[in-house]
Amino acid sequence: MKNIILFSVILLILFTGCKQEPKSDNPFFNKWDTPFEVPPFEQIRNSHYLPAYLKGFEEQMDEIKAIISNPKAPTFENTIKALEYSDHLLTKVGRVFGALNSANTNDSLQAINMEIAPLASKHRDDISLNDSLFRRVKSVYENMDKFRLTEEEKKVLDDTYKSFVRNGAALSPEDKDKLRSINEELSKLTVQFGQNLLAETNGFKLVIDKQEDLAGLPEGVVAQAAELAKSMDLEGKWVFTIQYPIMEPFLKYSGKRDLREKLFTAYFMKGDNDNDKDNKAVIERIANLRVERSRLLGYKSYADFVLERNMAKTPERVFEFLGEIWAAALPVAKAEAAAQQEMIRKEGGKFKLEPWDWWYYTEKIKKEKYDLDDEITRPYFKIDNVIEGLFYVANRLYGLVFTRRDDIPKYHPDVKTFEVTRNGRHVGVLMIDNYPRASKRGGAWCGAYRGQSRDINGRMITPVVTIVTNLTPPTGDKPALLTASEAETLFHEFGHALHQLLSNSTYPSVSGTSVPRDFVELPSQIMEHWVLEPEVLKVYAKHYQTDEVIPADIVDRLDRASKFNTGFATVEFLAAALLDMEYHTLTEPADLDIREFEKNILNKYGLIPEIKPRYRSTYFNHIWAGGYASGYYSYYWSEMLDADAFQAFKETGDIFNREVAAKFESEILSKGGTGDPLEMYKAFRGKEPGIDALLVNRGLK
Ligand SMILES: [Zn+2]
Q1: How far is the CA of 497 from the centre of ligand 1 (A)?
Q2: Cα(494) to centroid(ligand 1), Å
Q3: How far is CA 513 from CA 409, 441, 505, 700, in A?
Q4: Each residue of 512-571: pLDDT tens digit?
Q5: DSSP 310
Q6: Is 667 a catalytic residue?
Q7: How far is the CA of 540 from the centre of ligand 1 (A)?
Q8: d(C-alpha 136, C-alpha 66), whole Å
Q9: What angle in degrees, to the nearest 10, is found between the helix axes of 315-346 and 566-584?
Q10: Within 13 Å of residue 356, how many CA atoms lie on the same side as its CB?
Q11: Which entry of 58, 493, 572, 610 is annotated as an active-site residue?
Q12: Using CA atoms, how far apart are residues 404 and 160, in angstroms rounded to an integer?
């Protein structure tokens, strides 16, 4: 309540203070005169966000009042379209804030986030629970056939109506109040989860001060650890953290088993340390609130609620899908574990294989079988070359051209910016931000400071897209040299970027990546198929010192090794996906002992103790804070699609087949969320996707 009063006072000050000025000192209130209207990062201060959000809420409420008080009968134009364009300022500030709070955060941004999250949640509820507005939306929906609507407009109308219902518009007043308080609490818990996780991730470091404890580590990894130590005022020592790019090489190469155990244990205990950053109570509450919310809305479980809008449609279908792959992968993973145990035995080791040993022995076996390790290939994957490879593929497939632009504002010196054109016409802007830092959350993602759409007058708005990753950074005088899997990550995110860049929709809510979760990874994962194709490698994979193209026999070994350890990779992933589904198919609120719950689920499926799920519950950001609740399976669902879709190229004998690419662009990439995903897929492929290509690609069939 206090908040609401304060909120109104601030609004009053804002409105009397800002309206008259032609140019505000708050950049969010101005038109951006930067190249391509990219956010003027250097002008944006932390103090600008809250006022911009508050004014954004107010402006949208004004627009909504105007829609409601329109004396004319509801039409698509005066209701749905007006609503679609009502959040101009809110989107403007929200996109910048959201992107920077992930890629370049600080205590102040996090505090602002904590303050805004419940306000934003309340604001969304004020719209979706507004009776008069819903009546108008419903009227347009029920009279859909009376308006001459395009297919895209029908989809926007259908989405809008269903989104109102799914957000509680049809509930009784008491239930609406319940829903509001659930939403508000959920929004706070979600932020809390993320902040705990970041603190836990940054809170651990393994400091090494004896040279002998570096045994087995490649020179580049040691140099990286020395630089990390230096940045933490520990010059002369070496620091390893539980950030993936530095943790993974340690697990792969360190001969010090006790240190591997220490590091990996810190990793998988994140959020589960019974301290003030513990996430167990947070996620228990989130899971329970989601059950309550779904029941209130008339669904059996949260998964039922979510999946209705996905391609998979029901939890049963997802369990069936995951079960089929699990059955194929678990025996393979068990055989991999046995091979590792055998190697331990041969070396005279008297211990049982543990999760912190997996990477180490996998690497040894890989070396033995294929004479291949990351250090052999790294010199050929200089980051700038990999980026050139991306651009080459996009050019061959879609005719896009990428030009480096240093005159465009950036939020951090690491950002590289490119203008994207086709046939000389501007398509959009792409920013790439590659290296880990404490202010960046883990993982890799693609977002947009501005999505593609047409404005209310039909004028094209071009996208400003951003790729953020945590890849191996440059060290000393060496450029950033990536692993093959890191190169794949770049291709993946670049696929999302293409989905945004080639989007050609009219309405913002259905543009680019605004598609169901289990479809959204199709454009990204299909790009991964090009990364190790010999035809592509010879263009970009050149030795960073000699410019020598990656030798054919390394390419051959890479190819043969590509199906190595896939039992582990598949099982590790599926274990997390199953955890997600189990949490979200709960049908009643329950006292959850998170550790027990997790253990029981993993036992039920027979996960072997040598493998931990890719994400344990307490750091499973995707499902608690990242929008992937009962959606983590989506990556594999999309893989079914991408494996099948890449076959369309392969079948022509030309991985750059322009006709297939044109079809992929016209039926999938350009369409965004304007159609039904299964229909879009069938229009591209001529048939429904099957699971075979996925199993074959993973060497599971
Ligand atoms: Zn992705």
Answers
A1: 10
A2: 9
A3: 24, 21, 11, 30
A4: 999 999 999 999 999 999 999 999 999 999 999 999 999 999 999 998 888 899 999 999
A5: S
A6: no
A7: 23
A8: 12
A9: 140
A10: 20
A11: 493
A12: 39
